[in-house]
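INFO batch 0412 | record 1 of 1 | parsing
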Amino acid sequence: MTKKAENIEHPGIVTRVHDKYVEVMVLSQSACSACHAKGACSMADMEEKQVKAFKTPGSSYTEGQHVTVYMQKNLGNLAVFYGYILPFLLVIFILFGLVGFGFTEGQAGLAALAVLVPYYLILYLSRNKLNKTFVFYAR
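INFO prediction complete | emitting tokens
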């Protein structure tokens, strides 16, 4: 088992119990929702998410039980890379590359944005493999 500092943790509530995993409702908060001035700017963003978390061996779970859902920190960083950094780099390289080859800025911009469609489609089609990589645990 890894140290607590090496994990990303979120509190949650068990909504369903299965043989090997539990479904947990996690309240996802943006930085704005934790801010003391969130009412003044109306930028609060709180969202409920359902995650499947594998059971910790030797633990029993019941619906409504408060648990902590965790994932290895390096996997969280990898998720940020796939979800945000890599598509950003693709857009930038396509944009500047096409402008360098003589396309107009408008054409290059549309092509750079259009590259996101197959990128996210490939991510979607790879979701089963990614679900085996990005694993949550409950304790």
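INFO post-check: The chain has a mean pLDDT of 84.
INFO record closed
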